[in-house]
Amino acid sequence: MSTHKIAVIAGDGIGNEVMPEGLRVVEAAARRFNIDLQFTTMAWANCDYYLEHGQMMPSDWFGQLKDFDAIYFGAVGWPDKVPDHISLWGSLLKFRREFDEYVNLRPVRLMPGVPCPLANKKPGDIDFYVVRENTEGEYSSVGGRMFEGTERETVLQESVFTRKGVDRILKYAFELAQSRPKKHLTSATKSNGIAISMPFWDERVEAMGPGFPDVHWDKYHIDILAARFVLSPERFDVVVASNLFGDILSDLGPACTGTIAIAPSANINPERTFPSVFEPVHGSAPDIYGQNIANPIGMIWSGAMMLDFLGNGDARYTAAHDAIVRAIEQVLEHGPRTPDMGGGASTTEVGMAVAELL
Amino acid sequence: MSTHKIAVIAGDGIGNEVMPEGLRVVEAAARRFNIDLQFTTMAWANCDYYLEHGQMMPSDWFGQLKDFDAIYFGAVGWPDKVPDHISLWGSLLKFRREFDEYVNLRPVRLMPGVPCPLANKKPGDIDFYVVRENTEGEYSSVGGRMFEGTERETVLQESVFTRKGVDRILKYAFELAQSRPKKHLTSATKSNGIAISMPFWDERVEAMGPGFPDVHWDKYHIDILAARFVLSPERFDVVVASNLFGDILSDLGPACTGTIAIAPSANINPERTFPSVFEPVHGSAPDIYGQNIANPIGMIWSGAMMLDFLGNGDARYTAAHDAIVRAIEQVLEHGPRTPDMGGGASTTEVGMAVAELL
Ligand SMILES: CC(C)[C@H](C(=O)O)[C@@H](O)C(=O)O
Ligand SMILES: CC(C)[C@H](C(=O)O)[C@@H](O)C(=O)O
């Protein structure tokens, strides 16, 4: 039995509150399914560290992390301490890019017991994946200002798309679609307004399509696609999108299923050259930090995705993943619930309840 | 009594079906409120024109249009005939930019009789404006490709933000918020991921805020903002956004109120140096064209916004606008309804029903 090395980074705010519950549940599942995990906690990649050291992480962060199998990650950001673009570009976005975690995989699923903001939907009706490109595109610090501080001030912001970057995310998404019963892929674009990069994106989709003759694919401009998430979420199966569009759709999707507090995500390096990062979709929520009321389900579910990834097809790990998801469903349906879900339970109580079911 | 000169451009697809109904209603309102309108129909700015002439509009389009007070515009685009980025950049986007229609104003309102996709909402609960920057930002044809056709292919797409462009749209939005009872402004950003342009946008909002001490403002990243449109649309009053974010939010908002088929929009040059353009939010919908089933309400409501704009504060025009909106509400509530709203009426029948109420 091999040991999986996992780096634990709680980050800021409620990242520190949900992480212990994530660990509690992952450890319980590991015990039950006889999976050997070794956790190492890193006290950096948070805004307090920045205030002390002038950077989010130690200079040798890459070397410290690169040999882990996975990074279990809470949430980073505390705008009153450090501007978001500094804290995020100094941590999470570095991992995604420098560990080449080019797939951001985000399930969107209507779970039992979660009140749906959309009328007349029941669990099972909404069940799809957003596959987001995670290393290039609109997320860029390339560009600059001219005539700063004057009336003529002009800001240029570059988006960068490469054939390699686009093709590999499309391939991942087509393969995922192929593995699912509906075999349906939707590509997000905006080639009618963004005139250079998005027509290129469309071209690459057209080029990839024929290689997957059994996958039925279509494309929508991001504006109408966002509208369709609200009006007909049932029709989606796998949605592939650029970095920015994927970011928007993977918050919007979970909102359509009730709450982003329970949504998980995986930042995957499919070649396993570097560690992948597993983190909830929600942020660090400084406004509710310190009360032990944050919902730990997103963190826990991300832990389940981590086990699945570590198993790489091994049935024991898949079983561990499935057991956690079933336990989450139980707790969502019967409680205890944190205040955001209409309950009065604490973060710890919810984490313990999920762990107990394992 | 002055005569208002209006250019009429139906465009493609259902633009041609909803335009006659828009005109029918606007003319009925003009008669009733004693407003003098003169319409001139342009047979260009559509994809068939492009197929014949190799361009969307005649070369002297600017001169032909510039002295009109307004352009009443259907919808452009027919991807099977002409790629969207060519048809749109050759028409609508030219108007917005060259006539410096820097405000795209889009009301989001839950209307009576429209089934709301969100649970437990009633008319009045959702009532806000999206104020979208309409001339710069992410909509850009600046950029290019290197290593085309090879594995190294790299595409650069520039977004361009100017202090002038950002400040004037923020000013319009702050003033609009100031004129409303709630006096609340929300700015859409993504400064945690898009590292050059969006921090600049945030800076300009911070700089503008103190000039409007009675306006309460906040900001959200676009991902979570999209989620909040679904989870708590009641809280919004005026939402200001860049070109792309405004595009997404102004489709998503109407979707949250039931359908984008009835959503109107105004592309405004506030200084009235050039004509403003009034158009429904929906597109040309080639798939349903030719059946006379398109919903004309978005076109009609846009006509009401046009009258309001032409009046520039004159009570007669405001009354004409309000009368059209009331007639729309009546028809939405009691029918007739087009198939998209669950009815069996034609485009023409709905248009006639609204006109009759005037
Ligand atoms: C057709 C398209 C270019 C246009 C836009 O993106 O601006 C449309 O979606 C709109 O919102 O008016
Ligand atoms: C915090 C932020 C930079 C991040 C992103 O935009 O990618 C977050 O919203 C996410 O979706 O993981």
UniProtKB/TrEMBL annotation, chains A, B:
Taxonomic lineage of the native organism: Bacteria, Pseudomonadati, Pseudomonadota, Betaproteobacteria, Burkholderiales
Catalytic activity, as annotated: (R)-malate + NAD(+) = pyruvate + CO2 + NADH
PANTHER family per the UniProt record, alphabetical: D-MALATE DEHYDROGENASE [DECARBOXYLATING]
Cofactor(s) needed for function: Mn(2+); Mg(2+)
Listed InterPro entries: ICDH/IPMDH, IsoCit/isopropylmalate_DH_CS, IsoPropMal-DH-like_dom, TTC_DH
SMART domains hit by this protein: Iso_dh
Gene3D superfamilies for the chain: Isopropylmalate Dehydrogenase
Protein name: D-malate dehydrogenase (decarboxylating)
Gene Ontology MF annotations: D-malate dehydrogenase (decarboxylating) (NAD+) activity; magnesium ion binding; NAD binding
Family designation: Belongs to the isocitrate and isopropylmalate dehydrogenases family.
EC number of this enzyme: 1.1.1.83
Keyword annotations from UniProtKB, A to Z: Manganese, Metal-binding, NAD, Oxidoreductase
KW Metal-binding (keyword) present: yes
Limits of the Isopropylmalate dehydrogenase-like domain: 5-354
